[in-house]
Design goal:
Shape: globular
Order of helices and strands: HHHHHHHHHHEE
Number of helices: 10
Largest sheet: 2 strands, antiparallel
Number of strands: 2
Distance between the termini: 14 Å
Strand order of the largest sheet: 1-2
Strand content: under 5%
Number of domains: 1
Structural class: mainly alpha
């Protein structure tokens, strides 16, 4: 579970600070978010959605497990997406959110029109926040699917979701204090490429193209 932890921690630092700063501003305008506990409920709702999506992704992977070499294919698919996200972090390729720009705009419009002063409403907003199209979340979902296990899929997304919280809580401070996000984005890009390489080699090893690499009792790929 190290991969989803680092994906969430470093990916959110390089990606979510820019992607979700608008979401934070939208929520800030809701009266309920004057209550600091509303943010905890919102993040709890977001992590809940991620966990449920991870459960579905794991279930899909588990259902398709009977197909020969599925895990190898999913591992290689994750590697491809991870390498693309890594290059997008440092501006070499377009951000995948461009593909979802229309959906993101409609989501933002719906959130701006949401009015409630109940803490339960902040949890509902968090659930909906988890459905916001995001390339980083899609990357994590492929990782969850590659687990080919319902529980592991849900746990992968749960850990990923928890790991994104620190950056999102600091989003205002980061936006003001960091004149450039080049270094955190670059570091996040390197880490994502590392895990992409690891998953790619694991997929190649499952296909019999390379040997598995063992580091003591741990299979590195």
């Amino acid at each position: 579970m190290i991969a989803p932890l680092f994906l969430g921690l470093l990916g959110s630092l390089g990606h979510c600070v820019g992607m979700c700063s608008a979401v934070i501003l939208i929520f800030d305008r809701q009266p309920i978010f004057q209550n600091k506990f509303a943010w905890f409920f919102a993040h709890a709702g977001r992590v809940t959605t991620y966990s449920l999506l991870g459960l579905l992704a794991g279930a899909l992977g588990q259902t398709l497990w009977s197909f020969d070499k599925l895990q190898a294919i999913l591992s290689i698919l994750f590697a491809v997406i991870a390498f693309y996200m890594a290059s997008a972090f440092i501006g070499l390729t377009p951000s995948p959110e461009i593909l979802f720009s229309g959906s993101i705009q409609r989501w933002g419009k719906a959130m701006r029109g949401f009015k409630s002063d109940s803490l339960s409403a902040s949890y509902l907003l968090g659930l909906l926040w988890g459905l916001l199209p995001c390339g980083l979340v899609l990357t994590a979902l492929v990782m969850a699917m590659a687990s080919t296990n319902i529980v592991q899929g849900a746990l992968t997304m749960f850990i990923f979701g928890l790991a994104t919280i620190p950056s999102l809580f600091m989003v205002r401070w980061l936006a003001n204090k960091m004149n450039s996000r080049f270094w955190p984005r670059s570091f996040a890009s390197l880490v994502m490429m590392f895990f992409g390489f690891q998953f790619a080699m694991r997929g190649f090893a499952s296909l019999g193209w390379v040997d598995h690499l063992m580091l003591g009792s741990v299979m590195f790929w």
